[in-house]
């Protein structure tokens, strides 16, 4: 018992002494690391070179844990950036669609502003509206009408070529009969041969070219323009090019883009023949022809009278 007490009495001062020495050593290290002196710097470098390389095994867990924390933070940042990029991609797709539509609309407007077939002709630009139905299978509505000075029979074009003519007029709207409609008939001139023909719509994208005097003089790619012979369409309006279908029939590849009719240009033509009926395709007959027809219907027996005169002479 006495021996245990003696050892306990010796252990307590020894522990206190070791604690004091450890505190002094640590305080010395702190001072050594805080002193700004070349000698102290050399001592610090020597201590680091001696201790740190031998302490890699002790620093390995700490280093691994620090790397794991960095990797997790990096993964969180990448996930957030990925989500942000997804949102931006969706916005870019929407902006791309809007940009394409604006680009097409801008190109169409530029064409409408630049192309002028005849300096003496002026036009009224209108926006294509939704078609509400008509007797024609291929027609569109414009947001311009009689109040804007539009008249029945005037030609309508997009920025590239002829589209059709006004075939129905309201106060604020006008109906355009397209060249592709089966009721459309347009006298045209084929260049460079100079032959006249009739462009006949058949509800297809490429109307037929009929009534050609010498088809062998026409080749694919020849230019088609309006001849102006009907009194409706001004002469020289671009229609399209000649193409040959598999059945060897001549057709017209129209210059106008009928798939994107957003804006149309109605050509003012003060010399247009007035249309009394929207179903009239190439203008009404001349007054002289009407008078002759009425006279023939009123007196249908001129040959009978001549035969009686001949029999009278024979008797």
Average pLDDT over all residues: 76
How far apart, in Å, are the first and last alpha carbons? 186 Å
Total helical elements: 5
Proportion of residues in helical segments: 40-55%
Shape: rod-shaped
Low-pLDDT segments: 278-286, 289-315
Strand order of the largest sheet: 1-2-5-4-3-12
Class per helix and strand makeup: alpha+beta
Q: Report the sheet with the most strands, covering strand number, pairing sense and barrel closure.
A: 6 strands, antiparallel, barrel
> Can you count the beta strands?
12
- Secondary-structure element series: HHHEEEEEEEEEEEEHH
**So, the CATH homologous superfamily of the largest domain?**
Rod shape-determining protein MreC, domain 1
Tell me what portion of residues adopts beta-strand conformation. Answer: 15-25%
| Rg over C-alpha atoms, rounded to the nearest angstrom | 48 Å
Instruction: From the 3D structure, determine the CATH topology of the largest domain.
Output: Thrombin, subunit H
Count of discrete structural domains = 2
